[in-house]
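Standup notes, structure subgroup. Blocker cleared on the manganese (II) ion input:
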Amino acid sequence: MTRWRYAAATDIGLVRQTNQDALYADDTLAIIADGMGGHAAGEVAAAISIDLVREGFRESPSVEGLVEAIQAANLAVVSDSRANPEHFGMGTTIIAVGLTLDLEGMVSPTLVHVGDSRAYQLRDGALRQLSEDHSVAEEWVRMGRLTTEEAAVHPRRHQLTRAVGVEDTIAIDVASISALAGDRLLICSDGLSNELDNDTLARLASAPNGLEMAVESLVSEAKVAGGRDNISVILLEFDQVNVATFPIRRTMSTAPPPVASKILGSSRPRRRRWTWRVWASTLIVIALVAGFFSVLHWYAYSNYYLGDDAGIIAVYQGQPHGFLWYQPIMVFDTTYSAHQLLAGDARALARTISEPSLSSALLYVKSLHTDWEQSRAASSATTTTTTTSIPTTTTTVKKG
Ligand code: MN
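Run returned:
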């Protein structure tokens, strides 16, 4: 069983016109929201966030419930500022400690926060800061670019790197709190932590006169120190406390994990290889298509045939009636007349006579012509013989 007692106070401070801080505390949940934005916008952002975190945690009093409640608050503030131009630019910090129930049935304190509101743990008069500020200066301290002393006076110490209601995605720091009975938790807005140093905070928050008195003295001392901002304080003291079965400390983000960009990065060479493959296969396809067409072209013009070109025997290259879109071309007009052929050869010529090459076609034409000339010579020789034999016969008759 975990049980706490609590006291809380919020004060406008000495300088500000409005109190844009909001807080809530009960037996299982303590929340502070430090709103920002012109007019009343900061108050709106803080109020929306407190309401939604309370509601979400009541429905699901677990670490997940707490984180999802802050995510819901973030989206609600974002959509409100988009819907209402006068709320543009509003946002809020949020810090909450909830008594969360885990799967083993253990109830233990969990801290969730976004922004620069803080949580400190107090034990035996000593103070330890549990939260890390999400401010430019503090992030730089963690990166080693600034010392703690430099950060305390750095002009960007109040500029937040994370807040509720600024973007659709949000990163929330979540940490199990390991506490002992008697430990106190101090939760506050920066109106307290900017005005009082750690020693003062530790002394006032650990004071044994009861929680209410301690809270009052913290607020009044912050005002004495300047009271330049709204001051909000919640002080919890554990009567009994458990530790989470599996303590966690991590940042939970609704943004895609940074690993995703690494995967994208590593896929770049893969993409390059893929492009190389596309190039290679494109070239292969081009080669195949070119090869296919050259085979077609080769086949279309691989043949020679003899034809009648206006009474002259000509040699054509190509398939006799064309092939696809390849038409035969006349490559050679012989000097031989198409009429000076034997009857059978003339019929063959009409049906086309194919030859594998131009020279064989020409030789064939010549042989056809030779055949015709020889047959003509033979028939004229026969005529001559007959003509000359007649007188002989006549002579013979005369003799007879
Ligand atoms: Mn503030």
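Discussed briefly. The longest strand covers residues 231-240.
Next: hand off to the docking folks.
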